[in-house]
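Sample pair:
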Amino acid sequence: MFTGIIQAVGVVAAIQKRGGDLRLRIHTGKLPLEDVAIGDSVCTSGVCLTVTDLPGDGYWADVSVESLNFTTLGELRTGSPVNLEKSLTPQSRLGGHIVSGHVDGVGEVVSLDEDARSIRVVVRAPDALAKYIAHKGSICVDGTSLTVNAVNGAEFDLNIIPQTMTETIFGHYRPGSRVNLEVDVIARYLERLLQGDAAARSGTGGGLSLDTLAKNGFLGNSPAGPGKH
């Protein structure tokens, strides 16, 4: 687990293709690795990767086909910057929100505009993720925990302060940049819980319907009767 508070910006030092997936070598820069061991997790631009080797100035990690299909890691090139965060310990401060490092989809930066000393960034999420993004809720963008300032359909606004622009890869974004998105884990579990008994049946992994809500007593005209929702 992670907090979404970026600890350093690393650089892709090497990419090795291995039978359909990849090995990445990440140079970690100012991120200390004295407390990192092989098998530990490092959040790499929002993706939880397992450390497979520690060459001294960074780490190697394997990137599975699943991660290549559902994140931007397959688009990285040697020299690409990446956000880095080591996994939580019991003594860590939860300065952001609970981040799993399991990317839900890839969004696209629509615009970046100055707003006093901050930068107002608009990101378009995949349509399937729009229902999980709420005004003043939390969103993880390339591993960075951020507050949603406004929502308009599948697009949402972020206020990026100078500190975040300097200490993360936000300074590299341009309109059209693709970013890894992880929605609030509570929203994902809540959707599954609201499916009630229907969750145990195959074919119910795609979300909620009014019929499902009604059958489980969450609508006023459900069989449970008004007031029991």
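The chain has three domains: 8-86, 105-185, 195-229.
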